[in-house]
């Protein structure tokens, strides 16, 4: 009986090890037909429009009782405006700016990097100036990137909700 038990265990181990050693396709080897996140850079967002986006983001945060830091950068990832709500944590000042800069430089929401890291695509951690936390959203007008907004101080999902409100408002701002 002991021989049968050892044989069964050995067979199970060999079966698991061969399945684990099987080659699986690497999703990073897929070559897209089009360039992802290929939004052309446009003219930089104005100060008044950046301030209006911050006002919309902070209004959304206030509705929920969240104290956030909100930064808006232009299409070159340069800080245009910043707002710190009363009681927002000091450590999130730089994080809000970093989220905005990442969204502008890489022309995508920072959530894309967060999702890549969560899927085990740790290469995203090696890219300069990336932050893998949601709450950074590009500001696009007429198909061109004019800047980005970054929020920090709450949970990533809270930061994202506030930034989405700020990003949506910029379309209604008079030029």
Number of spatially distinct domains: 1
Mean pLDDT: 87
Tally of strands: 4
Q: Please tell me how large the radius of gyration is.
A: 22 Å
For the record, the CATH architecture stands as 2-Layer Sandwich
Helix coverage percent: 40-55%
Strand content: 15-25%
Main sheet attributes: strand count, strand direction, barrel closure = 4 strands, antiparallel
- Along the chain, the helix and strand elements come as HHEEHHEEH
Shape: globular
Strand arrangement within the widest β-sheet reads 2-1-4-3
Q: In CATH's first tier, which class applies? A: Alpha Beta
Low-pLDDT runs: 171-175
CATH-assigned homologous superfamily? Haem-degrading domain
Content-based structural category: alpha+beta
Instruction: Give me the CATH fold name.
Output: Beta-Lactamase
Number of helices: 5
Structural commentary:
This protein is of the alpha+beta class and 175 residues long. It has one domain: Beta-Lactamase. The protein is 43% helix and 15% strand. It contains five helices and four strands; from the N terminus they run ααββααββα. Strands 2-1-4-3 form a four-stranded antiparallel sheet. A hairpin with a 2-residue loop joins β3 and β4. α2 crosses α5. The chain is globular and about 70 Å long. 39% of the residues are buried.
């Amino acid at each position: 009986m002991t021989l049968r038990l050892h044989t069964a265990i050995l067979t199970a181990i060999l079966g698991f090890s061969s399945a684990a050693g099987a080659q699986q396709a690497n999703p990073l080897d897929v070559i897209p037909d089009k360039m992802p996140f290929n939004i052309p850079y446009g003219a930089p967002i104005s100060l008044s429009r950046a301030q209006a986006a911050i006002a919309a983001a902070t209004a959304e945060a206030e509705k929920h009782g969240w104290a956030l830091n909100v930064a808006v950068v232009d299409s070159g990832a340069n800080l245009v405006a910043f707002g710190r709500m009363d009681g927002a944590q000091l450590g999130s000042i730089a994080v809000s700016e970093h989220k905005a800069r990442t969204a502008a430089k890489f022309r995508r929401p920072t959530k894309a990097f967060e999702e890549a890291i969560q899927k085990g695509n740790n290469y995203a951690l090696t890219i300069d100036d990336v932050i893998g936390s949601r709450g950074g959203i590009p500001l696009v007008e007429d198909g061109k990137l004019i800047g980005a907004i970054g929020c920090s101080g709450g949970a990533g999902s809270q930061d994202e909700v506030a930034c989405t409100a700020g990003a949506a408002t910029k379309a209604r701002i008079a030029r």
